[in-house]
């Protein structure tokens, strides 16, 4: 048992949940394309980025706590 390497289930669950959040990921990527040529630095996609990860985190939370001991 001591020789077993522990695996973080969150990483696995994040990968499994990403397909559920395709719309948020698409919106983030579209925003990145829109502001790509902004040289002022005033435009950003922080909101879309956090929307995407919120979606992933909510999906992960449903499953993660069942796997924790």
Automatic annotation (TrEMBL):
<dbReference type="InterPro" id="IPR036811">
    <property type="entry name" value="Ubol_cytC_Rdtase_hinge_dom_sf"/>
</dbReference>
<keyword id="KW-0249">Electron transport</keyword>
<dbReference type="GO" id="GO:0006122">
    <property type="term" value="P:mitochondrial electron transport, ubiquinol to cytochrome c"/>
</dbReference>
<keyword id="KW-0496">Mitochondrion</keyword>
<dbReference type="InterPro" id="IPR003422">
    <property type="entry name" value="Cyt_b-c1_6"/>
</dbReference>
<dbReference type="InterPro" id="IPR023184">
    <property type="entry name" value="Ubol_cytC_Rdtase_hinge_dom"/>
</dbReference>
<comment type="function">
    <text>Component of the ubiquinol-cytochrome c oxidoreductase, a multisubunit transmembrane complex that is part of the mitochondrial electron transport chain which drives oxidative phosphorylation.</text>
</comment>
<keyword id="KW-1015">Disulfide bond</keyword>
<dbReference type="Pfam" id="PF02320">
    <property type="entry name" value="UCR_hinge"/>
</dbReference>
<feature type="disulfide bond">
    <location>
        <begin position="17"/>
        <end position="59"/>
    </location>
</feature>
<keyword id="KW-0679">Respiratory chain</keyword>
<feature type="disulfide bond">
    <location>
        <begin position="31"/>
        <end position="45"/>
    </location>
</feature>
<feature type="domain" description="Ubiquinol-cytochrome C reductase hinge">
    <location>
        <begin position="8"/>
        <end position="69"/>
    </location>
</feature>
<keyword id="KW-0472">Membrane</keyword>
<keyword id="KW-0999">Mitochondrion inner membrane</keyword>
<keyword id="KW-0813">Transport</keyword>
<comment type="similarity">
    <text>Belongs to the UQCRH/QCR6 family.</text>
</comment>
<protein>
    <recommendedName>
        <fullName>Cytochrome b-c1 complex subunit 6</fullName>
    </recommendedName>
</protein>
<dbReference type="GO" id="GO:0005743">
    <property type="term" value="C:mitochondrial inner membrane"/>
</dbReference>
């Amino acid at each position: 048992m001591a020789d077993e390497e522990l695996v973080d289930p969150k990483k696995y669950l994040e990968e499994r949940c990403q397909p559920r959040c395709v719309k948020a990921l698409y919106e983030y990527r579209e925003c990145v394309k829109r502001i790509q040529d902004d040289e002022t630095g005033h435009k950003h996609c922080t909101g879309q980025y956090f929307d995407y990860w919120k979606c992933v985190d909510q999906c992960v939370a449903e499953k993660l706590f069942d796997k924790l001991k």
